[in-house]
Amino acid sequence: MTASMEDSRTEPWLPWAGLLLEAGAQRLLISSVYVLIFVYHTRRSLPVYRASWHQERIFTLTLHILSGVIELARYYLRATEGTVLPDIMDTILCLIHSLTTLRLARPLLRGNETTRAAYQAPAIIRPILAVMAIVRKDSNLHGAVVKLLHAFLYTRLLIFASKRIRLTKVQSQSTIYAQSVFLGAVLAIESSGLPVAVAVYIGAVGLVMVLNRSVSNHLSRSREAVKSSSRLYQLIVQSCLWVGLTELSSIKAHEPLALASCANDEYTDDKTAGGDKKDPQSRRLLKQD
């Protein structure tokens, strides 16, 4: 095993944890934090989602959680034995997780106008890196791809910390959510060890926002203008609409039911939600999020 492989395998999941914890202790800490998050966050949120979301969205969320958990478990269990090389199952799990991320972010009302793109950009980048890793049989790149999943963990920890330090007194909760999603992704990318990856991510978020606007502009054109486009172009635009790579206004105009059951809570920007608020009981329960 080369020194670079060894360094990648023991890359700290927290940027500052490598000085304090060995690889085994890091894995134990990761597992413990995920368990705490699922016990105190996901366990309380899922009943609310089940009550307000339609069955397809619940199925998508379940598939999203399972694919992420299995991908992480497969990697860290094999890491106890040495270098982890990617296989086809890793790639399939990554593709499932990314596709479900796009579908879940599609009607997202939380945060601000950058939040959906902050979720969408990694969902597009991760499968590309996963395919590169399996083609090149690159254990370092494979480890980095898996560690990008820790963005979920960082985001929840940042939201939790923001509440504990009373940041809500100076910023809206929708702003805190948007900042936590973006910074959570940045921390996960930094811990992955990929060179210049943070800059690539920031650029990708901007490009996704441009793509969303472009697709939205096309969807707002007249029927005659749309029909004059090539079949391939129309297929690409409709595919973007299906996965959510367009602005919320277009989704609301073309598929209003997609937004009807989306979580609308204290993390939602009133302007984004269009002033539509859920009942007080659902909002109180979702404050556990």
TrEMBL record:
> Which residue ranges are recorded for the region named Disordered?
266-289
Comp. bias regions, Basic and acidic residues: 269-289
Originating organism: Fusarium oxysporum f. sp. lycopersici (strain 4287 / CBS 123668 / FGSC 9935 / NRRL 34936)
Sorted keywords for this record are: Membrane, Transmembrane, Transmembrane helix
Where are the bilayer-spanning segments?
13-37, 58-76, 141-160, 181-211
Protein name listed in UniProt? Uncharacterized protein
